[in-house]
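[Discussion] Sanity-checking designs against the backbone

I'm trying to build intuition for which residues belong where. Below is a structure token string of 436 positions. I'd appreciate it if someone posts a full sequence so I can compare it with mine line by line.
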């Protein structure tokens, strides 16, 4: 039940308990939350969807798959958003919500799945940030000097500086505007240059390559990438920043994300595949041609935006550490600053090392979608809704949610097997710290 008037809202605040946290809660408008969500959808990962989704699914599979992924992702995220105040308490962490509905054992399991999800997403941002930086050096013929592992290390260092400077998710504010501008730069540049190349290019090959057995695994992996494209795995944490009425405002943010927010992502994905077909790179800016300064500006924008996006997806980990160790007061206090340097710096050192060690972007997208995005966003969301609303759902509604649980469970297992196979194959083909 969401309050309609100011007096109702004031009474409502007294009845809804807000758990303890070291970070800001209930301070942001729905529009700021929508920009956080839209930044995630149109992050630097969009430069890879033409190569990691469309190349393996083709026109029909890619278009239908993206449309279906949009619909089911919106539905699943709405379920989680509606459970935000279940039991008269704002659940500002995904694991808190699971514990409220299932019991304490679910707290640890959900936290483990979410941590894996966010860690893998952050690895992807480090790989993409490094790829963007390497591509920028390649524009000026320095690619042999600045290899991908070096560029990933530079990205990790820049992310650590940003993480130390920005104490919590709500503090991003102006940086969300910067992220939007940076995202528009590389998306517009990639679309325009790819369209120019496509107009001037001979007929492209849009067939799906590979042996029948390998195509099965790559298709399953691309399906995992579909759901990865739309879902954050940290919706309650984002909703925690939204001012009341939190449920209504979060639904507004989701409607914005899945309408206006997905347009740039669709545009760059389809234009990129149309321009280069089966030869599309997993980092689209490696495929385009055009003035050097324009290519360089797009790559620099992608590099900078990856830093901001990584901070968004690392924020639940930072919130956990800050709350556990009682980090309070001004972010500039010496003890708070020292803690952020040690904790966040250590987290990013580990993430950067893994990213440089195994820089297989498409494989990590698939594994992330399989191991955590499917369970967190679809399986858990639908099952939690059944348990929380069991007495208010019709038989048809229960059957629908159970259908989602079963289907996405099967897809999760299949996608995990496919992603592990892809990583094994690529690990044999490339040495560790590969310069891809």
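Best answer:
Here's mine. Compare freely.
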């Amino acid at each position: 039940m969401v309050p309609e008037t100011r007096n109702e809202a004031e009474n409502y605040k007294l009845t809804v308990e807000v758990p303890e946290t070291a970070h800001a809660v209930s301070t942001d408008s729905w529009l700021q939350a929508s920009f956080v969500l839209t930044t995630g959808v149109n992050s630097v990962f969009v430069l890879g969807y033409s190569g990691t989704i469309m190349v393996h699914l083709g026109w029909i599979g890619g278009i239908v798959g993206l449309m279906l992924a949009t619909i089911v992702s919106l539905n699943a995220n709405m379920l989680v958003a509606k459970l935000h105040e279940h039991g008269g308490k704002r659940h500002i962490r995904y694991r808190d919500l699971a514990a409220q509905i299932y019991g304490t054992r679910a707290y640890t399991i959900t936290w483990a799945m979410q941590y894996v999800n966010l860690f893998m997403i952050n690895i992807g941002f480090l790989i993409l940030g490094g790829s963007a930086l390497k591509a920028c050096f390649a524009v000026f013929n320095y690619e042999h000097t600045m290899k991908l592992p070096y560029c990933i290390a530079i990205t990790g260092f820049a992310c650590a500086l940003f993480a130390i400077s920005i104490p919590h998710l709500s503090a991003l504010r102006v940086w969300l505007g910067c992220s939007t501008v940076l995202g528009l730069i590389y998306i517009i540049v990639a679309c325009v240059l790819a369209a120019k190349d496509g107009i001037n290019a001979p007929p492209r090959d849009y067939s799906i390559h590979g042996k029948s057995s390998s195509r099965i695994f790559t298709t399953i992996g691309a399906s995992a990438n579909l759901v990865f494209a739309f879902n954050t795995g940290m919706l309650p944490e984002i909703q925690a920043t939204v001012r009341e009425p939190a449920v209504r405002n979060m639904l507004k943010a989701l409607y914005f994300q899945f309408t206006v927010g997905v347009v740039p992502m669709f545009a760059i994905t389809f234009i990129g595949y149309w321009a280069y077909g089966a030869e599309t790179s997993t980092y689209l800016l490696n495929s385009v041609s055009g003035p050097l300064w324009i290519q360089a500006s797009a790559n620099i924008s992608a590099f900078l935006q990856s830093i901001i996006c990584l901070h968004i997806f690392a924020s639940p980990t930072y919130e956990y550490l800050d709350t556990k160790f009682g980090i309070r007061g001004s972010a500039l206090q010496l003890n708070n600053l020292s803690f952020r340097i040690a904790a966040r710096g250590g987290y990013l050192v580990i993430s950067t090392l893994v990213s440089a060690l195994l820089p297989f972007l498409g494989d990590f997208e698939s594994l992330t979608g399989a191991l955590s995005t499917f369970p967190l966003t679809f399986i858990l969301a639908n099952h939690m809704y059944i348990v929380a609303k069991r007495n208010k759902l019709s038989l048809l509604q229960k059957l629908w949610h159970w259908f989602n649980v079963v289907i996405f469970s099967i897809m999760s297992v299949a996608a995990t097997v496919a992603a592990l196979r892809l990583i094994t194959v690529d690990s044999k083909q490339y040495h560790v710290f590969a310069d891809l």
